[in-house]
Amino acid sequence: MTTVLLVDDHPVVRSGLRAVIEAGDALTVVGEAATGEEAITLAGHLHPDVVLCDLRLGSGIDGIRTTIALRALDPAPAVLILTTFDRDAEVLGAIEAGAAGYLLKDVDPEVIVQGIHRAAAGDMVLAPDLATRVLKGMRSPLPRLTDREIEVLRHLARGATNKEIARTLFVTEATVKSHLAHIFTKLDVDSRSRAIHVAQETGLI
Amino acid sequence: MTTVLLVDDHPVVRSGLRAVIEAGDALTVVGEAATGEEAITLAGHLHPDVVLCDLRLGSGIDGIRTTIALRALDPAPAVLILTTFDRDAEVLGAIEAGAAGYLLKDVDPEVIVQGIHRAAAGDMVLAPDLATRVLKGMRSPLPRLTDREIEVLRHLARGATNKEIARTLFVTEATVKSHLAHIFTKLDVDSRSRAIHVAQETGLI
DNA sequence: GCCGGCATCAGCCAAATGGATGATTCCTGG
DNA sequence: CCAGGAATCATCCATTTGGCTGATGCCGGC
């Protein structure tokens, strides 16, 4: 019998997953957590074979940080990331964090069940339409922005002008422009609007 | 016995809702739909008392359009909107479309059950933290953008330049600038980036 | 110790953007 | 029919933005 721990901030989704998972008789849900912190504590006590974890967990730590902490446990559960969005940056982040796989929430129940079995067996599990994208991402990894650049990008996305960003960060406009120039080059765009767009699309921010 | 039709594009969420709703014995789920179109067809045949409908339905028509169509049925079911996001524009849109209420997905199961009962009784159902916002929205309604302005706004959010928008819409740059000027005035901003930001925040796009 | 990446700043210039004002056409509701 | 909103286009002008080039100081790894 494979044991599963559910982690999702929505009670309704947890109920749905429990119903789906326990429909068969090879899987049993041993616990539910609404936050990453709770998940880590519970996993430490319950030692589930597989943790099914949402990427977005409302307040508190996110699914990736939760994955990192879970993988540090002994014995470490297989972590299967389950989410609504298929942002490239997050796929890679989850895999790098040691997740056994990544499934989109809108797949059919039996895909989830199969995913859990395969994760428990140590296999890698990727939603079909994601596998190619992940591999593509491996070949041409997302540009690595520096912390400062990400910071500038966030202000950009809030609609700030260069002058405002400069004031907020206590630097000159020239510096902001310099950061932006780097960001634009890395993201292969030539306007702040488009930079915002690709940053949001790829999950950079 | 109050009958309920579930509308959500995620099978897992539907399972969860079904489990939650049928936990008591005063409610029964008479059907499930994954799309708005399917919901309208099913509601016409099943005549549920309440339709519990997600606002985002993947491909196809959205929850608001579905609501409008459902309310046009005879007898018209009470439509309870259930979603993850609490964007102002959508709250108002759903209410205007004739929804009996609006609940966030992360509420506790019993709140959903109570909401269904109250919707069936003809009451208005609003998630507590939303009620005040809706009322506030009533007092200072979101600026009403025209269809054309929304269209321009979408291109804007994808990072398009004025020239690109002009080409796409088969108009001159002057026209695009004119639309933008109106958009900026209505949203009370003075740059495309900030326009994108408030449009996304308020759920205009 | 030196190289390279990072953050900081500067100046110049071309292009894009935003504000102001006004005109025309079309359509719709009273 | 007519007022008014919507969409279209135009011109002028100031500001902002983005591209380019180059410089400085700092720090971490080899």
Descriptors:
alpha/beta; DNA-binding; elongated; six-stranded parallel β-sheet; 205 residues; homodimer
Could you give the distance between the termini of chain A? 40 Å
Structural class of chain A: alpha/beta
In the predicted model, the low-confidence regions of chain A spanning at least 5 consecutive residues are none
Largest sheet of chain A: 6 strands, parallel
What's the count of strands of chain A? 6
Mean pLDDT of chain A: 87
Strand order of the largest sheet of chain A: 2-1-3-4-5-6
Number of helices of chain A: 10
User: Which term fits the overall shape of chain A?
Assistant: elongated
The interface involving the most residues is between: A-B, 35 and 35 residues
Would you give an account of this structure?
2 copies of one chain form a homodimer. Chain A is α/β, with parallel strands linked by helices. Helix content of chain A is 53%, strand content 15%. Chain A contains 10 helices and 6 strands. Chain A is elongated. The N and C termini of chain A lie far apart (40 Å). The model of chain A has no long low-confidence stretch (mean pLDDT 87). Chains A and B meet through helix 1 and helix 10 of A and helix 1 and helix 10 of B. Chain B binds a DNA duplex (30 and 30 nucleotides) through helix 9.
Short précis:
The structure is a homodimer of 205-residue chains. By secondary structure, chain A is an alpha/beta fold. The first copy, chain A, has helices at residues 11-21, 36-46, 63-71, 88-96, 109-120, 128-139, 147-157, 162-169, 173-187, 192-201; strands at residues 2-7, 27-33, 50-54, 78-83, 101-104, 125-126.
